[in-house]
Amino acid sequence: MKHLTLAAAGLALSAGLALAEPREVRIASHVSEFSPLHAQSVLFAEAVEARLPGQFEFKLFPSGQLGKEKDLMTNIQAGSLEMINVASGVMKLDRKLGVFDLPWLFADRDHVRRAMAAGLEDAIRARIEEVGNMKVIGVYENGFRHVINAERAITEPFDLEGLKIRISGGKFRQQVFQNMGATPQKVSWGETFTAMQTGVVDGAEAATYGFYEQKHFEVAGYLSLTGHVYTPSFLLASNAFFDSLTPKQQAVFVEVGREITDAAYDSAAALEAKYFEEMKALIEINEVDLAAFKAATAESYADYEESQGEEYLAIIRGAQ
């Protein structure tokens, strides 16, 4: 009996040790360690560890190690991946989320933060969870997007006439560039450098860190600060993973996801400033005539409002 009791105690101890093992949580992204998204994932992991020490082992997989953005979205919906941090792919879940593809939606980063705090973030979170079968942990920043090309400086809309531009995003962003005379091109991001080098495309639109990490300045001489689109980033968890957490763990994930928001924006701004500083000696960087661009693309707002309503736009305009 004594042996059985000892054996049972040993099994209980082993079970206790097993339960104490930290749970592995993968956070995957399609973009690299140069991105604000990677910095956000680090912030989140460190903050959760501080609140729930030893309960989780976060493993970060940037640079598409676990798949491209579309694949990551599919895996999070299927519950085969714990967490992801992505950007433009989320807008393809639903045309209403395409509001972020509208040009010059925000005046600057402060306008973004005011709008998010005024209710836009909560509305976006609810929409993603409704149509996407996933849990939104945080809404942060992927950045303002600009245009890089090998042909000429872009200062006014007509400067884009005839240029083949690699574009991501949905219908509304494609339409914006078409309205300005450019020819949108679908090229894998990892192949964009070669596509510019060989003339398959003349340029690309992306966030600053994308041009920096891919060294596009080696094959394109002009970076025009159009700031035409602001893209949020989205830290997402699969419903299967989130539902498997204890109530306390769920609360901490949600709280931390919101608590790191200011630090996430500050980090994104600092990274952008750093990359601009390093690139300005390597490529010609120019400002643009924003009024001319806004006038040339105004009709895209009417198209969006007619099909998707004014709910999100009213919040954004109210925060301006």
UniProtKB/TrEMBL annotation:
Keywords, sorted A to Z: Periplasm, Signal, Transport
Top-level taxon in the UniProt lineage: Bacteria
Localisation per UniProt entry: Periplasm
Principal location class: periplasm
Family: Belongs to the bacterial solute-binding protein 7 family.
Species of provenance: Paralimibaculum aggregatum
Name of the featured protein: DctP family TRAP transporter solute-binding subunit
Pfam family, one: DctP
Gene3D superfamilies, per database record: Bacterial extracellular solute-binding protein, family 7 (3.40.190.170)
